[in-house]
Amino acid sequence: MNTSGPSEAFLSSPRSVSVYFDFLAMAGNQALHINPPNADEHLTTHGSDWLWAVFAIMTLCICISSRLTHMKPRGSRMFNQIAVVVLSTSSVAYLSMAADLGATPIDVEFRGHGGHPSRQIWYVRYIQWFINFPLLLVGLLCTTGLSLSDILSTVYFAIFMVVCALIGALVKSSYKWGYFGLLMATYIYMWQQLLWHAPRSTFAAGGIVRRGYYVVAGYLAFMITLYPICWALAEGANVISVTSEMIWYGILDLLTGPGFLFLFLWELRGADYNAFGLQSGKHTGYERSAPRSEKEAQFEQSATASGDQAA
């Protein structure tokens, strides 16, 4: 009498075990099989697994940020909506990279083992930065007393840095380091705006925002500084592998994306939104649901009292 159960009978058959492991393999990450790499030095399956994990984290953060946005009154959601846009852009970029899409092969300058190997350059990542970095700076600098011209010039140089990094990554010769030099020179202006000029401006929302700005701006300035280091070792000098590049950039994007945004929104939790002066002035009816500042409330009360006395 055979007393073995169905599972034991299944495992006792070599063919069944082979089919089982083939099924597990098919159920795994098949991105590199469906979209084969297009360069000699390319993304590995483990690197793709990491990118899928980052994509999942970004998607989860979108859900959280969207919920927080709808908890804010209409007319006071700008900073939360910036977070949603940044996280949505990052999720699309990491979905593409995890699926081994959005890259182009470029011959490397430093070959290491000889020959003429090519390396995957991920232009989709630069599209992500082209959108996200200016938005992060707009959100941060709008809490300060910087003039509109200063904010726009800072945003321009953020775009300038991303463009220099992209062009440098696509250049095969040593001329790429010229673009890297321009990128680093731009950092001097960025640091000056974030850490010197903006903190010395007038904060209309008060000291609570000023104190929080020092923390958030210092955090963002430090994180941005780490990107050129990774670029120099990856797209620049071809020192680290594509998978190592993905891990490094993924950690930076998580800290600069969800990490920075939630820290930024936390520091603004007690600030008066109307003090920033970001209302459009259009008669949409949304301004009625936005929280009013104490000065506005006092002004309306005094105006009403004056009207009653005149009547």
Automatic annotation (TrEMBL):
Predominant localisation class: membrane
Composition-biased stretches (Polar residues): 299-311
One of the record's GO cellular component terms: plasma membrane
Matches recorded under InterPro entries: Arc/bac/fun_rhodopsins (IPR001425), Yro2-like_7TM (IPR043476)
Cellular compartment(s): Membrane
Region (Disordered): 285-311
Residue stretches spanning the membrane: 50-70, 126-148, 155-171, 177-196, 212-234, 246-266
Keywords: Membrane, Stress response, Transmembrane, Transmembrane helix
Comp. bias regions, Basic and acidic residues: 285-298
The family this protein is said to belong to: Belongs to the archaeal/bacterial/fungal opsin family.
This protein's name: Heat shock protein 30
Organism: Wolfiporia cocos (strain MD-104) (Brown rot fungus)
Phylogenetic lineage: Eukaryota, Fungi, Dikarya, Basidiomycota, Agaricomycotina
